[in-house]
Amino acid sequence: MTAPPTTTQTARRGATTAPPPATDRPRRPDAPHQAPAAARPARQDAAHGAPAAARQGDPDALTRGALTAGAPAAGFDDVPRVLERCRALVRPALEEAVGRLHPWVGEMAAYSFGWCEVGGAPALASGGKGVRQALAVLGAEAAGAPERAGVAAAVAVELVHTFSLLHDDIMDGDGDRRGRPTVWKAYGTGPAVLAGDALFALAVETLAREPGGAPSVRNLSVALGDLVRGQADDLLFADRPWTGPERVRPDEYRAMAEHKTGALLGCAAALGAVLGGAGPETVAALDRAGRHLGVAFQIVDDVLGIWGDPRVTGKPVHGDLRERKKTFPVLVALGSPMGGRIAGLLESGDAPETTAALIEEAGGRSAALAEARRHINAVETALADVPSTGRATDDLRSLLGYLVRREV
Amino acid sequence: MTAPPTTTQTARRGATTAPPPATDRPRRPDAPHQAPAAARPARQDAAHGAPAAARQGDPDALTRGALTAGAPAAGFDDVPRVLERCRALVRPALEEAVGRLHPWVGEMAAYSFGWCEVGGAPALASGGKGVRQALAVLGAEAAGAPERAGVAAAVAVELVHTFSLLHDDIMDGDGDRRGRPTVWKAYGTGPAVLAGDALFALAVETLAREPGGAPSVRNLSVALGDLVRGQADDLLFADRPWTGPERVRPDEYRAMAEHKTGALLGCAAALGAVLGGAGPETVAALDRAGRHLGVAFQIVDDVLGIWGDPRVTGKPVHGDLRERKKTFPVLVALGSPMGGRIAGLLESGDAPETTAALIEEAGGRSAALAEARRHINAVETALADVPSTGRATDDLRSLLGYLVRREV
After folding, report:
1. pLDDT of chain A along its 408 residues, tens only?
2. Do A332 and A249 touch, CB atoms closer than 8 A?
3. How far apart are CA B30 and CA B304, in angstroms?
4. Residue A299: DSSP 8-state
5. How many other C-beta atoms can be found within 10 angstroms of the C-beta atom of residue B59?
6. Are A318 and A352 within 8 A, CB to CB?
7. Nearest by CB to B193, which of A103, A171, A185?
8. How many Cα atoms are found within 13 Å in the side-chain-facing hemisphere of B400?
9. Taking the model in full, what pTM does it have?
């Protein structure tokens, strides 16, 4: 049960001047490693090829852990090609859908997809990796259907993902995404709210137009509800105290991450499977896999945000501590006998190196890694319930493994 | 074809400080005559009982025009009872749906429905009349189904309506609604964006859960797309010049009003009919009726906003001129040979009485009344395509007539 914030609390979020101050939410699979190009070291994009140096020297590396054991012998080398295949397959349908929008709203949508700059000039930036669209296409293929069966699902989840980024950036006051101003920063808050609404409506319309679309719309609406629930908790967590009975518990954080990040990943694969004609067990298994993936991804990101090598992550060392984020390892440590001291350091923002060391000493890092491993195992368990369809199932397994295959 | 605004234009809307300055959009059937209680004369709420004084003395009164000719002999006396019956029928389902939201988001939703104050205390304010929910219930009854068949449609359209009010208030910078602070003003912009998203998702989920929900979700998604399109045009119109080739033409304004106001009214009645098992002709006819109703309502509102009796409308005399709104009569007058002079007066905001007289002299008032009558007639024509089901069809006809039955 989450207490509604007081008026004072909401005022702190910017009741009269919006967007509210940046409190830096956890990021999601498409966004985290898309630091501004200028600021990104050449070797940063580990997910696109895992530099050899990054694979060495860290005894906690999850890469060679639970998931790789079940991965195809070829490893993850094929994943960028799979992502590219899915992006190429989905792009025309996504462009067609966005083309149906009001021209002004359509420009904001194209800007957020990384297709154009403000004013409509060809884009200089690149879009996301397209993880969700790939999950949708592979979900359809895992159901034994041809790849095109997953396209409507892929379009819908990409639209929903972009809608949620647009609105979350307003709520979080984030001014930059993928090295460019966010939509609210570039076009204004009101227009950004409107563009998000338009993408949301377009996603629903896209699925509703499909023959037999009712079950898929039902799936999407559950994910949408979870997305909102996760974002609400995330906003409220920022205002909760560091210690005491009102502090955020790690299990609350895990539920938030499942809702905010996992629900749409699960929905993507599940929707593809629904449109591919899969039975309810397969659909449910893919949904579970995506949800656990979301939690694992978030917690791995949390560990990287404190202890990650800036040369690999592209993020400043101890960045999450400087930004006073209530991430999983921090929340575990705050619940330990050392919690009071850690809370004091976090509040002051001083000595992040000492804080990181104390969080590790308090068991925050090992608990986070154990939690991430549990969810990676759960992804694997869920995938075992998906009947093998050869290459498609292998590709899906590779993609899911690849997404948490980051050195911690 | 609407040109996307330049960066300067978007900056004027508040690219970095949101919400953007109030430009006072046209209002919609539930909202327009809900002025702050303190400011509202006792006899203001014409739609709730048409004070006798208001019926007299105005040769342009639409009341006894096209629509009343087709209305049941009993006139509109039953309408408040019909609205009350529908509100009582729908309220439990609406409360159940809102109860499924995150508690904090649920409080914002309950606040916007007028059920509670900030913090959750029982409401002192009253909600809207519930026009859309009534249209949905009557749509189901017009299809020959029992009233309960329309409840899910009623819940969905009320949720969508409230979502759109929440987000539009952010976009328009409106700080008051029905005599209380708007949600963004009371809870902050970010939370208000989130609450709107939650209501939107809940609306989709509500329909998707219904057996055979696919066609109804399709209908809703078309209305949602139109809503966004109408709001986009409305935002852009504010930045267009008063005169010259870039000025807003009356036909663009009419399309905006159909999208922004008519689409959801049409959708409400049509969705009720879909869930009530009506055939496609009936569904399409009800959708058309609602769309024309929206345009008629908006244009009647525009006439009242310039020439309405403040004792009846509860709004300051010439209020829309002082606020420099680009309403239908103004746009017609701006296209006349007197357009340049009127534009100068509108721009300065001086001498609203002279401006009103010039707009009337330029034919703005008579053109608006003629346009409203055309749409009222079109409502009647559309209703003629709905097979009569006795009381339900009569109630529907009364309700539609009642909504444009305001003295102009």
Report:
1. 333 333 333 333 333 334 433 333 444 565 433 333 333 333 233 233 333 333 333 434 443 343 344 444 446 778 999 999 999 999 999 999 999 999 999 999 999 999 999 999 988 767 788 999 999 999 999 999 999 999 999 999 999 999 999 999 999 999 998 889 999 999 999 999 999 999 999 999 999 999 877 889 999 999 999 999 999 999 999 999 999 999 999 999 999 999 999 999 999 999 999 999 999 999 999 999 999 999 999 999 999 999 988 887 777 788 889 888 999 999 999 999 999 999 999 998 888 999 999 999 999 999 999 999 999 999 999 999 998 777 888 898 888 888 876 544
2. no
3. 16
4. H
5. 4
6. yes
7. A171
8. 42
9. 0.84
CA dist list (Å): A132 to A138, A153, A155, A178, A300: 10, 9, 9, 17, 19
Tokens of B289: 């009726």
The amino acid at B63: T
- Chain B residue nearest residue A107, CA to CA: B4
Does residue B255 sit at the A interface (CB-CB below 8 Å)?
no
* Closest among B372, B393, B203, B153 to B282, alpha carbons compared: B393
Helix, strand, coil percent content, chain B, rounded in steps of 5: 65, 0, 35
The answer to whether residue A313 neighbours chain B at the CB level (below 8 Å) is: no
Q: Which two tokens stand for residue A25?
A: 């939410």
Closest residue to A20, CB basis, from B118, B190, B236: B190
Q: Which DSSP state fits A58?
A: -
Name chain B contacts of A231, Cβ cutoff 8 Å: 194
Amino acid (1-letter code) at residue A212? G
